[in-house]
Amino acid sequence: MFEILENEILAPQLHRLVVRAPRVAAARQAGQFVIVRAAAGEERIPLTIGDADPVAGTITLFVQAVGYSTGRIVAIPAGGALRDVAGPLGVPTHIGQWGRVACVGGGVGTAVLYPLAKALAAAGNEVVTLIGGRAAPYIILRDELAVFSQELVITTEDGSLGRQGFVTAPLAEMIADPARRPGAVFAVGPVPMMKAVAALTRPAGIETVVSLNPVMIDGTGMCGGCRVVVDGEAKFACVDGPEFDGHRVDFDTLSDRLATYREMEAAHRCRLAGKEAA
Amino acid sequence: MTAPLSVKEQLAIPRVKMAELDPELRRAGFAEVNRGLRLEEALREAQRCIQCKSRPCVQGCPVEVAIPEFIGALAENDLPGAAAILRRDNALPAVCGRVCPQESQCEAQCVRGIKGEAVAIGYLERFVADWALEHGERSPVDANSSSAGRAVAVVGCGPAGLTAAGELARKGHQVTIFEALHDTGGVLRYGIPEFRLPKTIIDAEVAELQALGVRIECNVIVGKTLTLEQLRAEYDAVFVANGAGLPMMLDIPGENFKGVYSANEYLTRVNLMGAGRDSAATTPIVIGRHVAVIGGGNTAMDCVRTARRLGAERAMIIYRRSEAEMPARLEEIKHAKEEGVEFLMLTAPLAIGEDGKGWVASLRCQRMELGAPDASGRCRPVAVAGAFFDLPVDVVINAIGTRANPLLTASAPELGLTRWGNILSDEQGATNLTGVYAGGDIVRGGATVILAMGDGKRAAAAIDDYLASP
């Protein structure tokens, strides 16, 4: 059992959990994830490790309650415990020296972006952070990111905070301005956002790293469920990723595979809701 | 006890047939198909063993169970004696009695099989092992080992790891198994369906090892959570048996459509996570009406029979050679046929088609014929020019095999590997690193439970020798 020390609501349905997992905390590097199960009988859910404190033996997870299983995870209060936490998994982010980098986050992807941006800044890169969301309540971690960002740009679709529109607009301006042009772009968020970012940076020839979140079961390469097409070849996000060259990823296949269980998940939630109501 | 039978009387006994669950009832769930022997049946079958001097069955067994001895004790109705002999040689007899390919191992060597039918060694093993579990018979402990009390880490809680752990614990060592998944058993739990191996049997055999003092830590991924170097620093020896690997891809168009699974993913969802069979389980699975399973091994049979149980009206094996070349056990093929599985032989997959929304809708197949034998000694399948056909299917399962998993090896660059990425080890399982041994699928590629157990047993003996040496 892995004790939950803190459970804080950051935005609608988005929780920040601090979990005691000493071995994971000691081994973890930026870009890696854990596989979590709230309780016996439940799904194995991959979650990016947002932060870690090897001395305290804790890791920080940002969890968006999008489905039944993630809902169960965030429902456990501080003092409770997760049944299983396994990791750290995945290839750590390659932290290079690019001079200026743009870190682009969309929605809950911002939480995945956070450790990455932090590590890039720590390595001496000048970090410009662009985060977007549907509306003001969905903009998360702005203060935390501002600490090490040279510039922080916020966009919302409804204009309730920052600029109205998508993160791609300020990114396009950055790329167009020789004085602000980034040496590399890191993008984490919904698949359409990552696809749009890659489309923007490709003609400009700017190295672009995306972090993918396909359906995953074991997280150790054994099942192959998390396969993504990169350069026409099947790669397993759990052992080869989760970060890939955004210019080589087949985003359409990824979107489609992510939809596999959507209807089933909806039906499952209805059934369970019915049971609870009964 | 009645007077011993004459050889002539022994030879006159027909081989026992094990009761099986009715094929119609099998469709209703995951109840075990083979029902086991009754005591009278087991005693009578044991009397068929003529206790020949040459004991060829033992050579046929990868863990060298003292087969004539345990059967001899059983024939005399000495069940505790039979159980003690069996457990001395085999850490997981209730598992082996169910999933071992006895027909190609011990029973293939049985003298009685030369003229007539071999002794049903596998059935007897299962009977004795189940009796021992029911009656709480403990495994014998070897108190005389000179090296007792050393600490050994075992990586992987599958058949190789469990066997090595049991052997080492019985010699008095402190054994800790590190398992990447959240539960024990490795492939026994996520890969083998309950209709062949009930989870209660795995639980009981694992509990037996824990009673011997074996510690098991789940959710630890060696190579990620802990490194091999850390284990080498903290333990006197390490046995690596992390198994499975990565699924091989079919490399045909349409492999990423919704409804295409690797065998490991399909079986893990159902067996480990309870998808499709336990209403409380929250892991989803696509239930197919028409399911095509590509491959001809035991894993393919497990997938196709599982698909049938989950409700497939049509469940098909697609195999590019003929039935004679299929690597699956005869019993699995027989059971699959009884359950209504269709066998499409000399058929190779060419492409997967979709329904316009990204869901699997069809499988384009190529008819094959057998050519000259290839390097494997089996006839090579050759495409019949222009002979294609389309099968309407909504789930496709790829059961063509796995390749080496790099998780552990990538984090231990000094560990010697083969060109395929498997760990290089000698006959005893020793790697190029002092005190590090390896076995099971990570060494030999995808193989059987009993071969992995044989590796575990040999490596445990070598580790014990290593720990005893000054």
TrEMBL record, chain A:
Lineage top rank: taxon: Bacteria
Q: Where is the Oxidoreductase FAD/NAD(P)-binding domain?
A: 104-198
Domain Dihydroorotate dehydrogenase electron transfer subunit iron-sulphur cluster binding intervals: 214-250
Query: Pfam families in the record, alphabetically?
Result: DHODB_Fe-S_bind, NAD_binding_1
- List the CDD domains: DHOD_e_trans_like1
Protein name according to UniProt: Ferredoxin-NADP+ reductase subunit alpha
Q: Can you name the source organism?
A: Geotalea uraniireducens
TrEMBL record, chain B:
Which InterPro entries does the record match to this protein?
4Fe4S_Fe-S-bd, DPD_II, FAD/NAD-bd_sf, FAD/NAD-binding_dom, Helical_ferredxn, SudA-like
**Which PROSITE patterns does this one have?**
4FE4S_FER_2 (PS51379)
Q: Which domain of life is it from?
A: Bacteria
- Domain 4Fe-4S ferredoxin-type, which positions? 40-71
In terms of PANTHER family, this protein maps to: GLUTAMATE SYNTHASE [NADPH] SMALL CHAIN, GLUTAMATE SYNTHASE [NADPH] SMALL CHAIN-RELATED
Which named protein is this?
Answer: Glutamate synthase (NADPH), homotetrameric
What is the protein's species of origin?
Answer: Geotalea uraniireducens
